[in-house]
Amino acid sequence: MRKFKENILKILLYLSAVVTVGILIFILGFIFIKGYKLINFNYLFSEYKPSGGGGIKPFIISTLYTVGLSLAIATPIGVLAAVYLQEYAKQGRMVKVIRYSTEALAGIPSIVYGLFGAAFFVAALNFGYSLIAGSLTLSIIILPVIIRTTEEALKVVPPSYREASLGLGATKFQTLYKVILPSAIPGILSGVILSMGRVIGESAALFLTAGTVYKIPKSIMASGRTLTVHAFLETKEKGDIASAAAAGIVLIAMILILNLVAKLISKKLNKADY
């Protein structure tokens, strides 16, 4: 009877894995089949034409701007907040409230963040529909992810590292800067990679803050349309599934390339530390 239960459990595990992989392959295959015919040099590196026949260069540039700005704003704030909570703050009720608030922020729908960004960054601060308004909104969205992943990365650093460093006469700050943070870099970068995927895939918040202008943004104060917003508009306004699917293929490629770059940076930093 016990062996029978184990076999049933194994079958369920295998089926779950097969179904998960099958769904992933189906989604990627569907997008690829629908959109691969549109992808060529002209599509990737020419400007968009509302009348048709243009490319997605402005949207790629807007997406890269948004990713770079959001991570540049959220990463230092998130890492420093996690360091304070894990290494300096007294583990009491206040820290628990902060952690609970961080987890609650992670569960808020992105449209709510978009409404806040539209009211505060776009209207109150008078940024207007711009990449900086969209990036600031996205930085708030990804902040909880960076804080939580950084905290977990700091927790798994062996206590013996801290004790050895302090025992050799290093200050707490030196221990943090030279020992703890370098050891936690892989975990921190995992949070950055997850946040990167969230930023690239976001559309609702950007629709309300960054706008939908289809031209190449001249500065971060200009409005811009990211690839996800473009895919949404192509589907909603034109019903052009092929164009949206082609944008989706480019998005997937961008995520894979950026993830690869982040992992290479992580490996180089680890080698430099040792």
From TrEMBL:
Report what the protein is called.
Phosphate transport system permease protein PstA
**In the UniProt record, does the keyword Membrane occur?**
yes
What subcellular locations does the record give? Cell membrane
- Organism of derivation: Clostridium hominis
Its topology with respect to the membrane? Multi-pass membrane protein
Q: Which keywords accompany this UniProt record?
A: Cell membrane, Membrane, Transmembrane, Transmembrane helix, Transport
Q: Does the keyword Nuclease apply?
A: no
**Gene responsible for this protein:** pstA
Q: Which family does the record claim for this protein?
A: Belongs to the binding-protein-dependent transport system permease family. CysTW subfamily.
Chain ranges passing through the membrane: 12-39, 59-85, 97-121, 127-147, 179-200, 241-262
What is the predominant subcellular site recorded for this chain?
membrane
Domain ABC transmembrane type-1 intervals: 60-262
